[in-house]
Amino acid sequence: MSKRISLTQYLVEQQRRHGRITAELRLLIEVVARACKRIAISVNKGALGEVLGSASSENVQGEVQKKLDIISNEVLIEANEWGGHLAAMASEEMDTIHVVPNRYPQGEYLLLFDPLDGSSNIDVNVSIGTIFSVLRKVNNQRGVSEEDFLQPGKQQAAAGYCVYGPQTTLVLTLGEGVMVFTLDREQGSFVLTQEDLRIPEDTREFAINMSNQRHWAAPVTRYIDECLAGKEGPRGKDFNMRWVASMVADVHRIMTRGGVFLYPWDKREPDKPGKLRLMYEANPMAFLIEQAGGAASNGSQRIMDITPAKLHERVSVILGSKNEVQRAVSYHLEAPSD
Length: 338
Ligand code: AHG
Ligand code: MN
Ligand code: MN
Fold this sequence. Notes:
The chain is α+β, with helices and mostly antiparallel strands.
């Protein structure tokens, strides 16, 4: 069997041999991976670790927080505060940004995360995950504010997710392809298990919450209706459907065997662009998907081209196999605007 490369070795090589990443970014990724290992331990303990169930609090989006949402957020903050690689962090679970305290050196990077994605699946023992996005602090004046975070996703220096499923898997991009690392529990380290992951351009599998069907806009209804019509319909082929309700798990399946994922705008709350959050859910996933040869759009615009107006901005999401995303987007572009 050929020798396996650890995440540490991979990152050192990226920094030393290829000069692709700075020492600070290398440390940042290592620290995030270490935090994910700690979160994985809590997830695995489940009821034994008394980590299941809800906390008695709500986050800034008005969602009831689960104990693991809060634990994972704290693990990521604590792990990343002291290394000198970050200026500030932002999270789904915090109203405002968390600036690195004065007692530690400030670095040039900004880290955003969804500490625990798929919260509704925690208590039922279904795959969940952590999503993260790395930006550079563009202005190099002293101090850091929320404004520094409001950059389009195309400016991400790195992004990734860790899925806590049957295996704990870290999927990472530094802007030159997508690498997959599997946690070796005996060794306690992430090991490179797939290089340059590519998503098939075509697919017969879609992921959408069908219970919202009656609220969708016409282009989404058209796209899904055509998939459902199968061999006899305009697509001339049968489609399968999957919906895990953990974006991490749905995206990981698409990364592995292709597919298209939609969480579109709908009529229930017309003023809200969508459910998913742009900066720590859609952007990192869009970066990974594009780096693997797929596409990610909000129906009219590439997700990574959107300049956010606020930290917790939401967005409509269509991502995955390129040809399928392009088709769904073309239906949006053809639809009469009202
Ligand atoms: P989170 O648990 O971080 O709030 O994210 C949940 C998101 C996403 O992971 C998933 O795709 C979607 O919500 C599921 O939404 P529905 O319950 O509406 O299907
Ligand atoms: Mn999420
Ligand atoms: Mn979350």
